[in-house]
Amino acid sequence: MAAGPSLPSEMISGPDLGAGYLHQLSFDRHDAATTFTHHAQEGGRDAAGPPVGPLDVLGFARPPSPCMFGGPGCWHRRYLLPFSATAKVRFAYQRHRFVLDTMLRQAHGLADVEFDDALNELVRRVAGPLRDERIEWYVAGSGSVRLVGGGGSPRDIDLGTTRKGVERLGELLAEYLVEPVAPTDRPGGDLVLGGRAFVGTPRSGARVEWAVPLDRREPLRWEELGGVAGVARTLEVSSPNGDPIRVSRPEYALVRAASRGRTAGTEAAIAAIRHVGADPELLAVLLDRSPLPLPARVTLRGRVLGGA
Question: Is pTM, for the whole model, over 0.85?
Answer without folding.
Answer: yes
